Amino acid sequence: MTAPLYAKVKEHILEHIRSGAWTPGTRVPSENELVETFSISRMTANRALRELTADGFLARVPGVGTFVKEPPARSSLLELRNIAEEIAQRGHVHAAHIDRRETIEAAPALAEEFELRPSSRLFYLVMVHSENGVPVQIEERYVNPVVVPHFNDQDFARITPTAYLVAAVPVDELEHTVEAIMPTRDQQALLDIGDHEPCLALHRRSWSKGHVVTVATLIYPASRYALYSRYKTSPSGTLSQ
Prior knowledge:
By secondary structure, the protein is of the alpha+beta class. It has seven helices and ten strands. It folds into two domains: about 5-70, Orthogonal Bundle (Arc Repressor Mutant, subunit A); about 75-230, 3-Layer(aba) Sandwich (Chorismate lyase). Helix 1 crosses helix 3 (about 40-55) and helix 2 (about 30-40) crosses helix 3 (about 40-55). It is elongated, with a radius of gyration of 22 Å.
């Protein structure tokens, strides 16, 4: 079956992006230029550019043009990765600021997650991580002070909570849950995003020697970050041991 004309135009543009010929920020041909090059209608050219924009490959700037979009940053789904290192590996600059840091009494549901009695004391931290000055993650974290008594004493401008916890307490079990959410007003303000921007929320629990060490929710603007995993499997598709 012959591919529709708009699909051929999309593939032409994607080939240039995938090959590296058109890097992020490169202006792609306009609708008029595509009409002339492919002998297609303006409606067909518009559909190709519109769908590539919706798919996250292009960014259209009214009155200026259409440009190859910087791909969203990625964070590991299954591993404990330090976001500062991930950002540095991309050649970008990490920064973070603390929005809240305190000691709280655990509500019943939170105490249950920690496998503790209700009203047990927990460290509570909210941080915002930025990449090249753009907020990319809210880190909302609870920590068991019995397991990590000096957590709240750390300078998290110098070391991220993840890096500190991995160094301080051996991790032997992880639990992850990912969901799409609409952020609260406060979260929108921290991430500097609009009212209708969805987010990805990674909920993570970690254990060490039978104790829950930390419960964290990491919130990413969907347009700026992607979560991924890659791992070996058996021939049937199950995780390799």
